Amino acid sequence: MQDAVIFDPTTVDDDTRQQRDEVSEASSPLAALDAKQRREFNKLQKRLRRQVGNAIIDYGMIHEGDRVMVCLSGGKDSYTLLEILRNLQRNAPVNFSLVAVNLDQKQPGFPEHVLPEYLEGLGVEYYILERDTYSVVKEKTPEGKTTCALCSRLRRGSLYGFAEEIGATKVALGHHREDILETLFLNMFYGGSLKAMPPKLLSDDGKNIVIRPLAYCREADIAEFARLMEFPIIPCNLCGSQPNLQRQVVKEMLAEWERKHPGRLETMFKAVTNVAPSQLADRELFDFAGLEAKQARMQERRIDALNVSNDG
Ligand code: SF4
């Protein structure tokens, strides 16, 4: 196995678990909310759980006996994903296990204690995988270029490989609705292709199935949930990288559309799930060359039907 620190909750005795649950309830940030705030929080939490549950059902993301590896970066999205999946795990009709994995990329200033403390507090099985992708990214990226693309590729490679090692049958990522829409427009504007981020995906080498249970969730809901839950957020830009400017531009464009036309993002997301290949222009997806043959078949059927009704 690669270098990794592991915590296995099954080795924690019952007394310790009970003490920890009592402490965590009393010290929960939610204890400070008044009745109205609590109601709002419950509504938000219910919505996120429902959307995650629906996405899991719609795309057949999790099956009986799955071992789901939740990739935990320390950002709001992955904390939310873990929290919602933990809840679903308790209530779902299928049995599945969760294991959280954080990739410590050796960025300067990365607070190594934050995630182990958090995860041990929850009693979730976890691994911290140590990989110095930071140095590789710094070395390989030309001065002034953004480092995020290579960094993400290396991160993905490390995590997918590790999933196989620990026998994870699914790799869960914290991408949400806005991530999917941003990717759609980025691919359209800069990549010349009509593709986004699928809720469920088989990796190119066929070894991993990647799932995105937050696919139906709004980023604003996740941000609010993370704020109220007071997750110990670790910023991604410890590496000193500039944010990905193209993504930022698309993000602002989408936010502006939503401000001017509330509901537009929801409609656009619906469009991603409702594709009509015959109304696009991809010859791989639709047999334009075969339309004449199809027309002839349809006309033949019509004549046959006409003959039958005249005979009758
Ligand atoms: S901000 Fe830094 S750590 Fe985050 S994806 Fe970009 S290069 Fe990687």
Automatic annotation (TrEMBL):
Pfam families: ATP_bind_3 (PF01171)
Region of interest called Disordered, as start-end residue ranges on this chain: 1-29
Keywords, alphabetical: 4Fe-4S, ATP-binding, Cytoplasm, Iron, Iron-sulfur, Magnesium, Metal-binding, Nucleotide-binding, RNA-binding, Transferase, tRNA processing, tRNA-binding
Residues bound to [4Fe-4S] cluster: 148, 151, 239
Matches recorded under CDD domains: TtcA-like
Pathway(s) per entry: tRNA modification
Alphabetical list of InterPro entries matching this protein: Rossmann-like_a/b/a_fold (IPR014729), TilS/TtcA_N (IPR011063), tRNA_Cyd_32_2_STrfase (IPR012089), tRNA_thiolation_TtcA_Ctu1 (IPR035107)
Enzyme Commission numbers on file: 2.8.1.-
Segments forming domain tRNA(Ile)-lysidine/2-thiocytidine synthase N-terminal: 68-227
Intervals of motif PP-loop motif: 73-78
Catalysed reaction, written as an equation: cytidine(32) in tRNA + S-sulfanyl-L-cysteinyl-[cysteine desulfurase] + AH2 + ATP = 2-thiocytidine(32) in tRNA + L-cysteinyl-[cysteine desulfurase] + A + AMP + diphosphate + H(+)
GO molecular function, one term: transferase activity
Secreted is among the record's keywords: no
Cofactor binding summary note: Binds 1 [4Fe-4S] cluster per subunit. The cluster is chelated by three Cys residues, the fourth Fe has a free coordination site that may bind a sulfur atom transferred from the persulfide of IscS.
Main subcellular localisation: cytoplasm
Misc: The thiolation reaction likely consists of two steps: a first activation step by ATP to form an adenylated intermediate of the target base of tRNA, and a second nucleophilic substitution step of the sulfur (S) atom supplied by the hydrosulfide attached to the Fe-S cluster.
The family this protein is said to belong to: Belongs to the TtcA family.
Record's protein name: tRNA-cytidine(32) 2-sulfurtransferase
